[in-house]
Write a structure and sequence with these properties.
This protein is α/β, with parallel strands linked by helices. The protein is about 40% helix and about 15% strand. It has an eight-stranded parallel beta barrel, surrounded by six helices. It has a two-stranded antiparallel sheet with strand order 5-6. Strand 5 and strand 6 form a beta hairpin. The relative contact order is 0.15. The mean pLDDT is about 95.
Length: about 290
Amino acid sequence: MKVGLMFVNSGPFSQPELLAQLAVSAEQCGVESLWTVEHVVIPQGYQSPYPYAKDGKIPGGEDVAIPDPLLPLSYVAALTTKVKLATGVMILPQRNPLYVAKEMATLDLLSHGRTILGIGSGWLKEEFDALGLDFHVRGARTDEAIEALRAVWNDNPSSFHGKHFNFGPLMSFPKPAQKGGIPVHVGGHSPAAARRAGRLGDGFFPAIADAAKLKELFGLMRDEAHKHGRNADAIELSCMGRANVDTIKAFADLGITRVVVPPPGFDKEKLTRGLEKLANEIIAKV
């Protein structure tokens, strides 16, 4: 079982010194991957319910620091050699896939092929409104963007012709270091996200820890993969969870190969102790 860390660019980890401590110590302790989150803005007084908290609000409040998800990973790439660099998640329909393709390919090249693109379709309608984007077509934009990314990463020249994105033939270099392009892991815990992962994903990452719900979502994902002639067993399964051996082993029984947990501390001393404990009591036993 692989263990990753979530939220590594937000709150106190927006500061370079603590991010560096997290990245270097996590790699030394056997953490497999680091996952960044994204919100370009948080509109004041938003009413859209945050789907991962009972109170429907983003942890840390409206003024929590959430740096861009890719720039911190570039910083981490220069400090590390093994840990994977992942977005968890990038809100893909808010971005032009040509920019995402270039930025991710650049990061993949600089990190010698260590990137994972975790994507979601978004939940915060007011953020889409601020960007001048239609919240209600975000699913279709997400699907097209995934296909467009793969065209740019793998084809030369590259073309894509859809309803929301239309380009080519064109040239885009560098290509990713990873053969076949960067793996795209679909985030979200809705039926739509499960089906998207089955159709288009290299991985599926519902950021929840409810075993019954996960089992249901994985079933939907597998059914959709079979409908489209894809090998469901080749789609890597991840989830969020607590750093607990029994919990993680139970996830393994569902076919999950990666559990992503929050950082174990928010200052240098607690972070170092927490990561050492994670290495000795969790990573070494799973």
